[in-house]
Amino acid sequence: MFLVMAAVSPIILFGDVFGAPPAIALIADALAVAFTLIALIEIFCPISGAHFNPVVTLVVWLKREMCIKESALYVAVQIAGGFVGIVLTHLMFRDDVGGLLFISEVARDGYNYFGEIVSTFILVFVILMLVKVKSSKASIVVGLLVGGQIMATSSTFFANPQVTIARMFTNSAAGISPTDGLVFIAMQFIGAFLAFAAYKIFASVKTA
Prior knowledge:
Layout: H1 2-17, H2 22-48, H3 54-62, H4 68-92, H5 94-97, H6 111-132, H7 138-150, H8 161-167, H9 178-203
């Protein structure tokens, strides 16, 4: 819920409320997501593993660290949280957006699709490696990675099916049309599977 709010609210606040150019709104969005992720991971990692992303849950299941029923429940709750997040965001900015739910018409096609493969690969691979090396700085690394890659990828780093679904229901510039959103989700799963395959290769390497 909070992750979706952090991903959408700055675009509305800086773009629609303050009238800032898209570049400024994007930088604000990157910072908001980075700061929020650091806090959320620190809080929820000891409780649930800080799964806010169905493709992360997928690779945890592929590692046989969760059963299929538990994984499905995680994904259901993630999607529900994202949906609540978009409603709360619109409620905060109702004077500017004009309602609570919309079907987005924002097109994100072409090479944005490839951008989502790259985005999700980077995110999932980094998370897997951080867990493997038992990093104590995972929250900071992941938060900074996501914030940085929002400003460095053609798709602006959705890299999360639940966030993508939630953003199908906003009329802000942070949205994505349902058609493009479904393709984004497919690309995210491709990126996650590629990241898991790369992780298996790296994890099998013996160090001296």
